[in-house]
Design brief:
The chain is an all-alpha fold. Helix content is about 60%, strand content about 0%.
């Protein structure tokens, strides 16, 4: 009789362990799915990517012996586009952005006596100089724009 009682208790113990395991599995399945925070680029980051792509096309045009058509007006958004960190829009940024617009417009100046490659590299160097004061990450990418 004792053996039968011990066997019964052992079976109940084993079955009770399985039930709690099932409960844990169902509560784990009911947990909310993990939602990841995706990076949303700022207006300025998007604008700078557009500027890079456009200047890459200008570089290729220059290397192919073509004169770039006209200054892209979208570049003027540099003065108003929302930065990733709003505090970065300071006097240094403002002066570099004005200088960038001037040097970029000079690329399209048909009356200039300065070689087009030099004018283009001046604009790219303004980008590099600005990025040396803040947001240094894109500098290696920007340097690829320089015409050797």
């Amino acid at each position: 009789m004792r053996v039968l009682l011990l066997s019964f208790l052992a079976c109940m113990f084993i079955l009770s362990c399985n039930d709690s395991k099932k409960e844990n599995e169902t509560t784990q399945n009911k947990k909310e799915p993990i939602v990841y925070d995706m990076y949303e680029p700022s207006e300025m980051a998007l604008l700078m990517n557009e500027m890079y792509a456009h200047n890459l096309k200008i570089k290729q045009d220059i290397l192919d012996g073509k004169m770039p058509a006209e200054f892209p007006l979208e570049f003027l958004k540099i003065h108003s586009a929302e930065l990733t960190k709003a505090k970065d829009r300071n006097a240094t940024f403002e002066s570099f952005s004005k200088l960038f617009i001037q040097t970029e417009k000079e690329i399209f100046n048909q009356a200039s006596t300065q070689p087009i490659e030099e004018r283009f590299n001046n604009a790219v160097n303004v980008c590099i100089s600005c990025h040396q004061t803040n947001c240094t990450g894109p500098i290696p990418r920007i340097k690829k724009l320089l015409i050797k």
